[in-house]
Amino acid sequence: LYTNALYGFAKMIFKLLADEQPTHMLVAFDAGRAVFRHQEYALYKEGRMKTPSELSEQIPYIHQLLEVLGICHYQLDQYEADDIIGTLVARTTCPKLIISGDRDLLQLLNKETAMLYISRKGLSQAKKYTALSFEEEYSLKPAQLIDLKGLMGDKSDNIPGVPLVGPKTASKLLHKFGTLEAVLANFKQVEGVKLQERLRDFKEQALLSKRLATICLTAPLKIDLKDLAVKSFLPASVNKFLRSFELTSLLVSETTAAAIKEPVEKEKISAPPSIEAFQKFLQAPVLALSFTEPEPPNIMVSDGKTDFFINSACTTYWPMLKQWLLDQHTEKIVFNLKELVKRLISLRVELEGPYVDLLLAAYLLQPGEQTPTLTELSSRYLEPNDSRSQICSIFELNQPLQQQLAAFKLTSLLEDLEIKTACILANMELMGIKIDQEKLTELGQELKEKLAQLTKEIFELAEQEFNINSPKQLSFILFEKLGLKPIKKTKTGFSTNADVLQKLAHQHEIVAKLLHFRQVSKLVSTYIEGLQKEIKEDGKIHTQFNQTITTTGRLSSSKPNLQNIPIRLPEGRLLRKVFIPHDPSWLLLTADYSQIELRVLAHLAQDPGLLQAFADNEDIHTQTARKVFNISEVSKERRRHAKAVNFGIVYGMSDFGLAENLNISRKEAGQLIKEYFLKYPNVRTYMDQTIEQAKEFGYVTTIYHRRRYLEEINSRDYNKRSFAERAAINMPVQGSAADIIKMAMVKVYDKMKRKGLQSRLLLQVHDELVFEMPPFEKEQLIHIVQTEMEEACPLLTVPLVVDIKTGQSWYAAK
Questions:
Q1: Over the range 490-499, which residues count as b (16 or more CB within 10 Å of their CB) and which as e?
Q2: Closest by Cα among 31, 155, 197, 57 to 721
Q3: End-to-end alpha-carbon separation of the chain, Å?
Q4: Three-state SS for 159?
Q5: pLDDT tens-digit readout, 752-789
Q6: Distance between CA atoms of residues 613 and 608, nearest Å
Q7: What gap in Å lies between CA 729 and CA 703, rounded to an integer?
């Protein structure tokens, strides 16, 4: 999913909230392309490029962000966002600030209303206008903007105006006559016969243009000022939303969050009255368990009627509770098992099952939703009760959640996969992975030297020095000095973003250097410096594995994010050299599933061509290249194209997306996709049937019954529907692969534990597991990992293949 617009919007909103401290706020959206102005002029905004689906697909998530932040958003059929803003400006008498990149809104400036005009350079270089400053700069009153548009028109909105009347002529006429109507009424007093003729002949067109440019001040809004009050937000909810899109650089800081604390219920708990009473209490078949303050650890237990509070330092009750924690016959109900297991490990206690994690249960029932609090779950599943404590809520929530899990065939997924995975992740997080800090510093220095070398080479090719990070200066070098052909124009000049540079690469060798410079620069700032900040006192990083964020069931990681360490760039692969075993005499072992998602696709689609290729252990990308291009000898370039098609199909990629990916024409990309479906027809059938099932049931599932709900699958909105269709195609594939890697983790971990190995599982990165081991366990661990991973999913009709390597570092083991 593209997140660039969501990121930019979120960044702007946070800055506005901090800088302006608004009491009331509205974000207005266009409802659609057809507005009331089309009834008067059908060609209004004709010729505008259709909004790319990659952008429009992000709008619903921008709506969600605003809702999490407690900010009102609104749109109105037949009206534009400008009309909503204009009507609110007209209706209210308080000080107002308009924030926009649309100069049309400057017509609304008055004594109470200012505007922050945002250029392409962003909010940091926005210009603030008042009615007075506008008049000083343009020698026109804000209200005269519509007269100006009536005369000169507006190409961006396809407003015609008067032919050959430009901004200078229009301004001169308005300075003299004041309004468009006055200009037209006195056209004979205008200098120049031809201009007089145009004002006479195009009078009605000019008046029409003024009406089209005039923002409506009387739109039938169903909101008013009281609806726009900015509500306080929960930092945890906002951060959960941001993490779900991997926008971790925008997480609400401690400083921001300090004033807005998430509400915590006051616990109604008591200490056990006697040893005998507590012993009897612990004999209950089901109890809820939770922690309170971290120092010292205080533990709460409840049977739904009585809540007990135990301090881990208590010599009377803690040993009894510790014994109960090791009891394999009592069911423990918890909320956030992974964190509880980590707490218990710190107390030298290993929690024994059976247990139920309500957080994981809620995640399976509502995947991709913001992680709910206990309060939210209670309001969803339980009758209101002000006297109910948090620990009691945990106990009472068990039954309704278990019933719903059983109804959706998700009980096994929770008990056999997610809960066991949570316990493994807790151990992995506590274990951490060692970092060679000397090598990290050395690599950082090498990358900085590489940056210096690239800078020198870029300057030589440009024949001058300039600020490589300045889009304006770079644009001058590329398009004016070197004469490259521009691809995309913005309001401030020609674009130099990464997509544009990729397409310019064939025009000049400086472009490849620039792309390389940007990649290396990001390695230094994001990874070298980022990793250095996360190294703890034990010389390790302890990444957090997130189990309840993605809609597909895949794990993600944060602090730091190890899922995104770049491996395609040679310098990026070198980063893996800094990950080493905790003991210099030990080795790292990596086990990587080979093309697991394509194997899952072959299983789901039951396509003979794919099934045969995997059964014969052929390179699937080479075979696809042979079939799609109808060739026998496959070049690296052809294989690369086939690989992009293979994985593009899994992600429901369109011809537009594939064209962008391979830097080929949309027609060529469409032909590649067409040839693919001709050679693998069952894949097309699988995709069509999956979409139809999603439309009928509202969700899709993995082979382990994990669900993803697709609320927009029957939407009339093309963008929303097309995104949901792509998600429907992808989720059974990616979700099943995610389930398989978790199942492999569980099986390998259990086998290692049963065999009493010293070896440890340290990381899971997409389809790869990373272990550390003493050399004498090498053969045994390889056998366990190979066997358990390749036999992890008996349901699969395609063989799983695992690549295993060992070495003194993660790099050496790849």
A1: eeebbbbeee
A2: 57
A3: 28
A4: strand
A5: 999 999 999 999 998 999 999 999 999 999 999 999 99
A6: 8
A7: 13
